[in-house]
Amino acid sequence: MTAETPATADEDGSGGKMPLLDHLIELRSRLLKSLLAIGLAFGVCLYFARPILGILVHPLVVAGQGKLIYTQLFEAFFVEIKVALFAATMVAFPVIANQLWKFVAPGLYRKEKRALLPFLFATPVLFTVGACFAYFITIPIALKFLLGYQGEVGGVTQEALPSVGNYLSFVMQFIMAFGIAFLLPILLMLIERAGLVTREQLISARRYMIVAAFAIAAVFTPPDILSQLLLAIPLVFLYELSIFAIWFTGRKRKTGAEAAPVEPLEEA
């Protein structure tokens, strides 16, 4: 076979070899399509920036705070830009994930594709569950706790006047932190499937995970202890859920392997 022979797919379903330049061209094409999706979504979300911001400030209104201020003339403008970019990233995520899969999939074997597809579909689902958990449960509890410091202190009225920029950063930080945290089962199951860790190692590292969960919560949440607990406790729960999911999927794979028919050896 000469060097000019075109690359063909292997029998087991993997793509053929591709020159480095073709890889770079393919990567550029996928990146441009992803950026185009974000740009189009940004244009639409910028038009609806105020209604989207209204959704984000709803937990604050429910908590009894009906006023937001901005202390710099350009702050309100940049808040709408941040809202539009944040929403555009969420809306365009399926397109980005699809482009990433199309770039990676040709180099995978058929068995590897079947193994990765469930994780690909589960990623946006778990991220959405984490974001909804933050929006509907964690943020209202944290706001109620933090706004509870209002009142009379030594004869002086203490009143919360959050700026729109600070509040938006607060909400986005919670949503992103919980969305990413809820991807922990996928991460642990992937590295276990790759053979980097075992279920027994994860069980033995449980005490270290508890410490790590509180350290992560301290970094990605406001400094009050309640907000940290609201992230650390779900992280520990998700870690335990990951250990159970690894046991369940491993048992299922083992059962499937035992049930698979064994082909008889051909006689010479």
What's the layout of helices and strands?
Blueprint lengths: L19 H28 L1 H8 L1 H5 L12 H30 L5 H38 L3 E3 L2 E3 L5 H18 L2 H10 L5 H6 L1 H15 L4 H35 L9
Antiparallel strand pairs: 1-2
Helix pairs in contact: 1-4, 2-4, 4-6, 5-6, 5-10, 7-10, 9-10
Keywords: Cell membrane, Membrane, Protein transport, Translocation, Transmembrane, Transmembrane helix, Transport
InterPro entries: TatC
Family: Belongs to the TatC family.
Q: Can you put this structure into words, describing what you see?
A:
The protein has 268 residues and is mainly alpha-helical. It contains ten helices and two strands, in the order αααααββααααα. The chain has helices spanning 20-47, 49-56, 58-62, 75-104, 110-147, 164-181, 184-193, 199-204, 206-220, 225-259, and strands at 151-153, 156-158. β1 and β2 (156-158) form a beta hairpin. α1 runs antiparallel to α4 and α2 crosses α4. It is flat and about 75 Å long. Belongs to the TatC family. The chain crosses the membrane at residues 35-57, 77-96, 116-147, 167-191, 203-220, 226-248. InterPro entries: TatC (IPR002033). Pfam families: TatC.
